[in-house]
Amino acid sequence: MGITGASGIEVAIEILQILKDNDEFESHLVISDSAKETIRHECNYDEEQIQSLADVTYDVHHIGGAIASGTFPCEGMIVVPCSMKTVAGIACGYSDNLLLRAADVMIKERKKLVLMVRESPLSPIHLENLTKLAKIGVDIMPLVMTFYHRPQTIEDMISQMAARVLHQFGVVSSGFFRWGEAEQS
Ligand SMILES: Cc1cc2nc3c(=O)[nH]c(=O)nc-3n(C[C@H](O)[C@H](O)[C@H](O)COP(=O)(O)O)c2cc1C
Asked: Ligand 1 center to residue 18 CA distance, Å?
């Protein structure tokens, strides 16, 4: 999992917390330099607390970290939140840090890569880069508000976003509402 300097780090924290309670999956985390800044601005957790939720952490400048190699065994990668700068780097194959390199490896190894992007409004440049990635099979899953499960709090929305992306990897968690379930409960 990669965390970049876009808004929405709470979703990354929720994902890491769900994975921490899951014996089947091991989480490997890399945090960009800019994310360290947004963590300070937006988050109740500090960088160390976020890192402590992951099984393995990497320095974003350690370009030789295990996740830089196509031989690293994994189900895939989630970048959350994903900035437009990181989208541009991935779209151009410009892998000058470990997070970008790991995403590049997912594409070259034909593994699952999900980008939980966050920016508003989106410029034509952002949209071009996102379209390019979507066309080669990268999942673009924007951090957008969710309503059908009738959230009462922001935390309810965060849970749904986190559970929804993990559902794509076969991770079952309690925060996930399928269409129709909210009305039944
Ligand atoms: C508080 C704060 C919030 C930001 N939110 C966003 C955002 O939502 N989306 C985005 O694309 N960039 C956002 N940025 C800008 C990125 O942090 C910046 O482009 C940075 O270079 C991204 O680098 P990275 O992708 O390596 O983390 C934000 C910056 C700050 C300081």
From this structure: 25
